[in-house]
């Protein structure tokens, strides 16, 4: 479960929303994922469905409802707003593609990008959903994930628990041809004002151009950019 508000029913309802955000769930799977009793999970899911926060697919499983999109469209995103100045500066310093990833269950979502104006790019489309099991951005987010999620990711990941411990120790991660052949990247964690990791900022490009040790070149720049994002939050 994520951070608790102290309002029990609200925390449980949010946990139901989180559980159904990555894959549609029937009642039995919803109970298994959330740990909630059957009656509680059913009552909360039906209530959220009534308000349009959940819906049901053709198999009767709960999934995100239409009103979530309405709410999201109206909400400002401070992290995206902060990236508008920081990411282009990092792109200009490195000359490579820059991305900002936010974790979403077992995936990471690219919420901001800054591409070089010319030359060969490593383009990750805005809004792209990538696995949390490969790549430097995935390592950063997995390294500070909740223990249950970390264990689940490690079962299919290209990295190990030992490598995540090393990421936490040095404060950044790198990967070479891990998520995609011929591509290398380096990433650093972005924290909120309480110190919790909420995103990963990354620089990526062709291995033949940026080398097999991108962290040696740009870890300091990534950490500086991550701190700038945190400051602007």
UniProtKB/TrEMBL annotation:
Q: Name one GO biological process term.
A: negative regulation of DNA-templated transcription
Gene3D superfamilies linked = 3.30.450.40, Winged helix-like DNA-binding domain superfamily/Winged helix DNA-binding domain
Q: Which Pfam families does the record cross-reference, listed alphabetically?
A: HTH_IclR, IclR_C
> Does the keyword RNA-binding belong to this entry?
no
Q: Which domain of life is it from?
A: Bacteria
Coiled-coil regions, chain positions: none
**GO MF terms, alphabetically ordered:** DNA binding; DNA-binding transcription factor activity
The protein's matches in SMART domains, at most eight in alphabetical order, are given as:
HTH_ICLR
Q: Does the record's keyword annotation contain Lipid metabolism?
A: no
Q: Which residue ranges does the record assign to the IclR-ED domain?
A: 67-233
Q: Which InterPro entries match?
A: GAF-like_dom_sf, HTH_MetabolicPath_Reg, Tscrpt_reg_IclR_C, Tscrpt_reg_IclR_N, WH-like_DNA-bd_sf, WH_DNA-bd_sf
Keyword set, alphabetical order:
DNA-binding, Transcription, Transcription regulation
**Database matches in SUPFAM superfamilies:** GAF domain-like (SSF55781), Winged helix' DNA-binding domain (SSF46785)
Q: HTH iclR-type domain spans which residues?
A: 7-66
Official protein name in the record: IclR family transcriptional regulator
Q: What is the lineage of its organism?
A: Bacteria, Bacillati, Actinomycetota, Actinomycetes, Nakamurellales
């Amino acid at each position: 479960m994520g951070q608790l508000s102290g309002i029990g029913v609200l925390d449980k309802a949010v946990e139901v929303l989180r559980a159904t955000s990555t894959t549609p769930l029937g009642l039995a799977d919803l109970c298994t994922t959330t740990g909630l009793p059957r009656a509680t999970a059913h009552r909360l899911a039906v209530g959220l469905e009534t308000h349009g926060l959940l819906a049901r697919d053709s198999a009767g499983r709960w999934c995100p409802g239409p009103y979530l999109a309405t709410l999201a469209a109206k909400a400002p995103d401070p992290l995206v707003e902060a990236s508008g100045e920081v990411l282009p500066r990092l792109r200009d310093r490195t000359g490579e593609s820059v991305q900002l990833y936010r974790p979403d269950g077992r995936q990471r979502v690219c919420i901001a990008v800054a591409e070089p104006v010319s030359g060969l790019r490593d383009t990750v489309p805005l809004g792209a959903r990538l696995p949390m099991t490969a790549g430097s951005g995935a390592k950063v987010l997995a390294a500070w994930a909740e223990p249950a999620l970390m264990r689940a990711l490690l079962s299919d990941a290209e990295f190990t628990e030992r490598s995540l411990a090393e990421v936490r120790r040095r404060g950044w991660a790198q990967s070479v041809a891990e998520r995609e052949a011929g591509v290398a990247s380096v990433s650093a964690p972005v924290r909120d004002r309480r110190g919790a990791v909420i995103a990963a900022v990354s620089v990526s490009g062709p291995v033949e151009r940026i080398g097999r040790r991108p962290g040696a070149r740009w870890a300091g720049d990534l950490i500086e950019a991550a701190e700038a994002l945190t400051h602007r939050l």
